[in-house]
Amino acid sequence: MIIKWVAWRLIREILRDRRTVAFFIAVPFIVMTLIYFAISEDETVNVGVVTRGIARLFDADMIDALESEDDIRIVPLDIPDTEDDRTVLVDMIQDQLRRRQADVILYMDKQLLEDRFAGKSGSLQIYLEGTHPTLTATGLSAIASAMDDLAASMPTVIDASCSAMCANSVNSKPMELEKHYLYGAEDYRLVDYFLPVFPPFFVFFFTFILSTVSFQRERVNGTLERLMIAPVHFSQIVAGYVGGFFLFATVQATIILVYVLVLISFDISVTQFFSIAVITLLMMLTGLMLGLLASFLAHNEFQAIQFIPLVVLPQVFLSDMIWDINSFPMFFQILSFPLPLTHANGAMREILLKNASLWQVWPELGTLVGFILLIFAALMFTGSRANMVNSG
Fold it and tell me: Residues 308-311: contacts with CB within 8 Å, 24+ apart?
């Protein structure tokens, strides 16, 4: 009888709180939807093809061979067909990779055909963006497989008047792949791609939990209510809490940052260290402010805890942290923009993997500062309304 009474009482309490019921429904629905799209789509490698001279005769063969491979998408390139200068072409190819118009670009000119007709293997030039090891490995594997078909197809275009000696000089040896990396190198590890996003994520995650739970405890103990009826401005209260949490959050952030930098296999300059420290600091402040806001919006400890997966998990799936956001439907790609971790991850990879300066990632930094100011404004508005209710 006691068990039945306790269970029924709990059910009535939960059903009476509409926000709690909404959390019960919304959180698993959102999380499971994100998981579905994350695991249902394979990453696709965008491949561009550039041919010049007599190599243009094999343009269609190369594209057909590549399109027959899984996870390969042939994309158009913004490179004029009339441009034949090798140096200029290489600059244009690298620019296309830098702008992520393609992940891999194949370049084939008359030299390859001359080598093939001379009985040599010949080299196919492959230009790789290089920062994403999974895309790089998938692209190289597909290209290596497709090149066997391409090599075998080359003799079929020999003119009928070609002599027997001429025809015999053509071979079907596997072509060599000469790789050129815009960023990284052949020994670039998969873990090196993911390590740069660990500091902003874990700093945000731990700081958000710390501020959410601690601030909620302050409300339960009645400390916040007593402060709000005191003759102080709400912004001073928020600044005080941020200052108190800042010490412990800084210790956590330092441990995470140093640990990740030790694991990264490539060298880090002093400028890069300073730059990623700035980004980590901004994410720490974002986590602190957002945690205070979530705790203030929650009516009880249960709702405060439910905010954690609702805030954190969408950023794990939609911030290009693990899964490529381009593989998600357009709705989720748009939804990823207002997520702080999206911009922090982009800036960290630009700085560590592409050696960009802090000035070059100013759009991401400006967006993070904007998030902090926006969250602070929302916190002020929420606090002012609560203060008016308490005063009334």
Answer: 308/208, 308/209, 308/212, 309/27, 309/31, 310/23, 310/26, 310/27, 310/30, 311/208
Cα 206 to the center of its chain, rounded Å: 20
In contact, 318 and 342? CB cutoff 8 Å: yes
Q: How does pLDDT run across 65-90, given as a tens digit for each residue?
A: 888 877 888 999 998 888 888 889 99
Rounded to an integer, what is the distance from CA 365 to the centroid of its chain?
A: 16
Domains and CATH numbers, the chain: 45-188 (3.40.1710), 191-391 (no CATH)
Contact 285, 372 (CB under 8 A): yes
Region of residue 42 (left: phi > 0; alpha: psi -120 to 50; beta: else): beta
Name 266's Cβ contacts closer than 8 Å, sequence gap at least 6: 192
Residue at token pair 């490698």: 45
Alpha carbon 125 to chain centroid, angstroms:
28
The Cα–Cα gap between 203 and 205 comes to 6
**Treating both helix axes as pointing N-terminal to C-terminal, what angle do 18-40 and 2-16 enclose, rounded to 10 degrees?**
80
Look at residue 67 and give its three-state secondary structure: helix
Share of the chain above pLDDT 90, in %: 14
Residues 231 and 240: their CA atoms lie apart, in Å, by: 15
Q: What angle do CA 21, 23, 29 make, to 5 degrees?
A: 115
Q: How far apart are CA 196 and CA 346, in angstroms?
A: 9
What are the structure tokens assigned to 135, written together? Answer: 């895309």
Q: Which two tokens stand for residue 356?
A: 């960009």
Q: How confident is the model at residue 389 (pLDDT cuts 50, 70, 90)?
A: very low
8 Å CB contact between 257 and 250: no
DSSP 132-151: -HHHHHHHHHHHHHHHHHHH
Burial, 16: exposed, middle or buried (Cβ in 10 Å; 0-12, 13-18, 19+)? exposed
Neighbour-count burial of 196, counting CB atoms closer than 10 A to its CB (0-12 exposed, 13-18 middle, 19+ buried): buried
Look up the pTM and report it. 0.75
Q: SS3 for 163-196, per residue?
A: CHHHHHCCCCCCCEEEEEECCCCCCCCHHHHHHH
**Cα-based torsion angle of the residue sequence 215, 221, 226, 232 in order, rounded to the nearest 10 degrees:** -20
